[in-house]
Amino acid sequence: MMNVALGLSLAIGGGLGQGTYGLPLKYTKGWNWENTWSLWSLWALIIIPWLMAFITVKDLMGTYFQAPPGTLCMVFLFGVLWGLGGVTFGLALDRVGLALTYGIIIGMTSAIGSLIPLFMRAESATYTATLVIITAVLICLIGVVIVSYSGGLKEKAQVKKNQSWKMGLAICVFSGVMSPMLNIGFVRGEELSELARDAGTSSLWSSLPIWSLALTGGFLVNICYCIYLLHKNRSAKLYSKGGVNWFYPFLMGLLWFGGMMLYGVGATAMGSLGPSIGWPTMMGVMIISANIAGYLTGEWKGAKGKPLRIMSLGVFTIMASICLFGYAATL
Question: Which of 201, 216, 226, 239 lies in the 20 to 30 Å Cα band around 25?
Fold first, then answer.
């Protein structure tokens, strides 16, 4: 039986984790981005998910051995594609600035990550529910664009004159197409969750076989890019200046994977339409929480008036879409 209130609450909690996991980066001193990101990748994409999977999933390896090879390959492949989206997100941010990066990439991630699973499970959605979900996705997109625009006013983000505008937009589009692949992999790997439940695993943890495999694919992309930067910038030596810096990637990993786990449990609780409802809900809350966290930590200092009013309008719009997603789950 679907539990809409629980599912939406968990997806919202997932958005809070996803929106705030980057905060420890602000307090890292003496390290380059690749130093922190490589360790975050190790914690968030390998150690924490696999450790939790081995602890909570009964006969984890048996679940993988029973699954069709095609399912395992597709889940892993979608994880690799998602990893490409994450790496190019950072490149897009550098080329076209905050407003366009979030507006295009998070917008496309919300829409594609919601609508493709909806069409994959079209037989389980009523005509009315489908229309409501599509409407809610459009409203969420509008809210994301508004919040991103307010961030652009705050940052006064501009494209660097020596970089290609068209190339920046192309990177945004590529990242926007690749980033929702993790949610599509989640839907594609549903058989792994079913096998885990059949083996006696609680539904609370049954999505872990999917996440562990998919995130391993994403880890390979992230760690390869970090190794490239560590070599290019000769920044591996900075690890010797660690100290408390070693703790921050672990904390980031807990927040990030914790948010993803909450989404997975929430999507399962909402039934067959869970991925189409929970994913854009998590994305919307992620944008809201990231901006609120930025405001509380001083990123909006000096930015009063119009930027804050526009951000408030965007937050209200996203919250309205979340209400519509909740309504769609009851149809």
Answer: 216
Q: How far is CA 88 from CA 94, 96, 177, 178, in A?
A: 10, 12, 11, 9
Going by C-beta distance under 8 Å and a sequence separation of 6 or more, which residues neighbour residue 235? 31, 32, 34, 35, 229
Q: Which tokens is 211 given?
A: 């996440």
- Looking at residue 75, its pLDDT comes to 95
- Nearest-CA neighbor of 264 among 17, 81, 40, 1? 17
Angle at 41 between CA 225 and CA 151, to 5 degrees: 85
Q: Give the list of residues 6+ apart from residue 49 with CB closer than 8 angstroms, or none.
A: 208, 211, 212, 215, 257
What are the sequence ranges of the domains in the chain? Answer: 4-328
Q: What share of the chain is helix, strand, coil (3-state, %, to 5)?
A: 85, 0, 15
Under 8 Å between Cβ of 41 and 252: no
Task: Judge whether 184 and 324 are in contact, CB under 8 Å.
Answer: no
What does pTM read for this prediction?
0.82
Alpha carbon 104 to chain centroid, angstroms:
15
Nearest CA to 148 out of 217, 102, 187 is that of 102
How confident is the model at residue 300, as a pLDDT? 63
Q: What is the pLDDT of residue 212?
A: 95
Distance between CA atoms of residues 230 and 302, nearest Å = 35
| Burial of 231: CB neighbours in 10 Å, binned 0-12, 13-18, 19+ | exposed
CA neighbor of 182 nearest in space, from 98, 74, 89, 30: 74
